[in-house]
Amino acid sequence: MIYQPSNIYATAQLGKDVNVAAFVEIGNNVTIGARTRIGAFSFIPEGVTIGRDVFIGPHVCFTNDRYPPAKREAWELTQVMDGAAIGAGCVILPGTTIGSRAIVGAGSVVTKSVPAGEIWCGNPAKFLRLR
Fold first, then answer.
1. How confident is the model at residue 38, as a pLDDT?
2. pLDDT tens across the length of the chain (131 residues)
3. Which DSSP string corresponds to 10-51?
């Protein structure tokens, strides 16, 4: 289900049973896997791939440009693997991967990849414990 107003670019690919809350922007060529939930006011730009059964809390901001404004060739890709959860208000910098079943605590700033099954939080996000 997609709640309005949300802006989903025509080239974005959403899997079956994806739930997109109001005021979400999903950019060009973004891929989102089945049964994923995207919270209100989230921003997901081109270059982001999100797996299946992922939870993205409200006000989560992904970026694709580490040193703006950069040309498109300098943009970095970001991946969120199956079963991961990202809490409200997180900022996910480009070039990172959130591993399978990993959790990122609310308000965290992810500056490097989060391994599978780990819980990270803070600014910058750091390892807290295993899930």
1. 98
2. 899 999 999 999 999 999 999 999 999 999 999 999 999 999 999 999 999 999 999 999 999 999 888 888 999 999 999 999 999 999 999 999 999 999 999 999 999 999 999 999 999 999 999 98
3. TT-EE-TT-EE-TT-EE-TT-EE-TT-EE-TT-EE-TTEEE-
Give CB contacts under 8 A, 24+ apart, made by 59-68: 59/88, 59/89, 60/86, 60/88, 60/89, 60/90, 60/91, 60/92, 61/90, 61/91, 61/92, 62/92, 62/94, 63/91, 63/92, 63/93, 63/94, 64/94, 65/94, 66/93, 66/94, 66/95
Tallying the residues shown for the chain, one arrives at 131
pLDDT score of 1: 86
